[in-house]
Amino acid sequence: MSRWGFPVIDFHCHFPGDEPVQERLDSEYEHACGPAKLARLRANAAAYHERVRLARTLPPTEPETRTTEEVAASWRADADDAGLTRVVFMSGGGNDRLAGVVAGHRERFAGFANHQPCAPGAAAELRRAVTELGLSGYKVIAPWVTVPLADRSLWPVWEVCEEYGLPVVMHFGPVNSGGGLGHAPNMDPITLHDVAKEFPSVNFVVAHFGCGYPGELLRLGWSNANVHVDTSSNHEWTRWMPYELTLKDLFRRFHETFGPERILFGTDSCDFPWGYLTPYADEQVRIVTELNLSAQDRRLIFAGNAARLLGLDLPGIATTREDAA
Predict the structure, then answer these.
(1) What angle, 0 to 180 degrees and rounded to 10, lies between the N-to-C axes of helices 214-223 and 247-257?
(2) d(CA 287, CA 38)
(3) Measuring CA to CA, which of 175, 176, 241, 276 is 20 to 30 A from 12?
(4) Is there a contact between 271 and 63 (Cβ–Cβ < 8 Å)?
(5) 322 has a pLDDT exceeding 90
């Protein structure tokens, strides 16, 4: 049992990648300005990230010197300490590396394929990630996709998701905190509309309550019953919305509109020395309690919905409203 007294599956975490942060930033920004201006962009982004870190009293991220196996052991220890039933990693330094991490802790970890759907051979790579590597779903950073999500060139990828019943987690909105990517053709969740209509059996999960686009996501979910939402991240984006918006507001509105069956708990935990972000989880549990959501709804949000989308049959975890009653 978890530290909160009920089963918990964290549906949105990240295993620390093995690529240097600078390389990740370079690959994101270079197309916009060329290499001569990357240093200034990196400095601007780092300054904003540090301000957010200090505001949330989190320790600084340090360069990881441990082996992948050692980091996995630390992650496993944190998950065990919190009593998590499963941790679902959205990324981890490539599909092969993450698959190796998951294979070493199969009873506690699950992982999603994480590669560009517009890259050559993307559908074949997704099929391999599922059938050979044992990954359980697909994660897409939509603003990095260079063609519209409904472009027919991406159809083979969505067809693989349909064939294997893969849940698809979509990140919309800005990427890499302040100073990062703030505009792109697929920034808005509504760009998923036609794909969700064309593939109604595929469960799409939009991360971070829409990350700056809650209204658009509510409209997307209203029109597509296969669109879900996850609760992960520090929700820094709510600070620069043009109106007052709290995490409690988001929980209330999405519970009213999506219903408890389409909300999945997550924290976005990733790097050490932060480790598992129990304060984020504590805050969400507190909010659900303050909103007086039923025990039935809580069981679905914190574990049952994730188990259903992942096809897990776990003792003590109900995956439908009827079983959770």
Answers:
(1) 10
(2) 40
(3) 241
(4) no
(5) no
Q: What is the Cα–Cα distance from 161 to 167, expressed in whole angstroms?
A: 7
Q: Residue 99 CA to chain centroid, in angstroms?
A: 17
The answer to whether the beta carbons of residues 122 and 138 sit under 8 Å apart is no
Backbone angles phi, psi at 236, to 5 degrees: -55, -30
Q: Hey, what are 163's tokens?
A: 């064939």
Q: What torsion do the CA atoms of 209, 213, 219, 221 make, to the nearest 10 degrees?
A: -30
Q: Are 261 and 299 in contact (CB under 8 A)?
A: no
CA torsion 313→317→323→325, rounded to 10°? 180
Residue 21 has pLDDT above 60, yes or no: no
The token pair at 78 is: 């944190």
The string of pLDDT tens digits covering residues 46-90 is: 777 777 667 666 667 677 789 999 999 999 999 999 999 999 999
Alpha carbon distance 122, 143 (integer Å):
17
**Nearest one of 235, 173, 230, 175 to 206, comparing CA atoms:** 230
Read off the tokens for 25.
């930033």
- H helix runs in the chain, sequence order: 21-33, 38-55, 68-82, 95-104, 122-131, 155-164, 193-198, 214-223, 247-257, 278-290, 295-299, 305-310, 321-324
For the chain, give the number of residues: 325
- On the question of pLDDT at 170 being above 70, the answer is yes
C-alpha distance across the termini of the chain, in Å: 19
Least confident of 2-6, 60-64, 290-294: 60-64
CA–CA dist 89, 193 (Å, integer): 25
**Exposure string (b/e) for 33-51, b if CB count within 10 Å is 16 or more?**
eeeeebeebbeebeebbee
Residues 6+ apart with CB under 8 A from 132: none
